[in-house]
Amino acid sequence: MKVIVLGGDGFCGWPTSLKLAKEGHEVTIVDNLSRRAIDLELSSGSLTNIASIRDRIKVANEKIGKIDFHNIDIAKDFAGLRNLIADVKPDSIIQFAEQRAAPYSMIGDSERRYTVDNNIVGTHNVCSAIVEVDPSIHLIHLGTMGVYGYSKEFGKIPEGYLDIEIKSTAQDTQILYPANPGSVYHMTKCLDQLIFQFYHKNWGLKVTDLHQGIVWGVETAETKLDPALVNRFDYDGVYGTVLNRFISQAANDVPLTVYGIGGQERAFIHISDSARCLQLAVENPPADGERVRIFNQVSEVQSVKGLAQILADQTGAEVQFVDNPRKELAENELEVANDGLRSLGFEPVLLNTDLIEDVKFIGNETKHNFDKANVLSSPKW
Ligand code: NAD
């Protein structure tokens, strides 16, 4: 199949592009390299030494499969995006190209507005370009578990739609699960959902929205094949996801810093599982006329303090509790359905399996880049 990967230079997009190329798909990456620019803006950056996009593409073509690259800002260059889609004639487009850090979106006015402008306009441009060029193209979007909020108010979190009974008519029906964002970034993901519902209703746009859990880990089978293919690994308080922050601390013999009492339960997925799920979504598009298909892309649920304890038990690291910079419940329970991707063949990698390998890799390869102050750089909100 032909697949355009928007945001294919990023943490999830790069290993997914390699995986799809390895499986024989023709991949076209679109990225404006804004994440690399934000690394400079925050004086932070990947703990691994990532190659330039030019070197990545060259080595990927030599060692893995067919991958092309175009530098387009999908929020600002609609014509460039539309023309590329018309030239490539993809079967699927994967939309990773959003500003994805909740802490970044809460730093201040310019970061809030950038996140909204970039994410909402970019995702809307993709939908609009598809209906202009060919409405049968399958759009796969990366949403987040954060659109649901983290309460057990409605029980186990279903895949996108909630069963309800309308009291006045005693009718059973399904509605989009009530959106409950916890940051401006999560708010953009909630708004994305409405864009998809409307484009589906009006133009029959074929959409899979993957509500992904927090991604952890760094390597996949493909990124290991050459140093130029290594994936980025964020560990700072703005872009580093919680388990990756802990992995960087364990690998560098400093205490694991848990926000608050660490009682929040969250859904997690390893980076290689994330790439595998994208492959399943590409190869199994929704049927014609099917409503917006929503899958929860998660492997397991863990509490933050539970995660720290697993890592501490495996590595001997100390656990330290620090003030929580975020406005969120001190503790919550979470239960999540993930039957959709499982029905397509997804078999999750659970935490214990790869954790220690990632700690070793990060410890051996990246010690010289680690700055322990960077892990605690989150803004407060
Ligand atoms: P990332 O920041 O590493 O990658 C995003 C990529 O998109 C970057 O390379 C960036 O340069 C590019 N980009 C951003 N705006 C663009 C634009 N306007 N035009 C072209 N390119 C643009 O993020 P990631 O961790 O790979 O996340 C990818 C997607 O997955 C995001 O939408 C994110 O919300 C979602 N997601 C990620 C996680 C996670 O834990 N990393 C969890 C849930 C959902």
Automatic annotation (TrEMBL):
<protein>
    <submittedName>
        <fullName>NAD-dependent dehydratase</fullName>
    </submittedName>
</protein>
<comment type="pathway">
    <text>Bacterial outer membrane biogenesis; LPS O-antigen biosynthesis.</text>
</comment>
<comment type="similarity">
    <text>Belongs to the NAD(P)-dependent epimerase/dehydratase family.</text>
</comment>
<dbReference type="InterPro" id="IPR001509">
    <property type="entry name" value="Epimerase_deHydtase"/>
</dbReference>
<dbReference type="InterPro" id="IPR036291">
    <property type="entry name" value="NAD(P)-bd_dom_sf"/>
</dbReference>
<feature type="domain" description="NAD-dependent epimerase/dehydratase">
    <location>
        <begin position="3"/>
        <end position="288"/>
    </location>
</feature>
<dbReference type="Pfam" id="PF01370">
    <property type="entry name" value="Epimerase"/>
</dbReference>
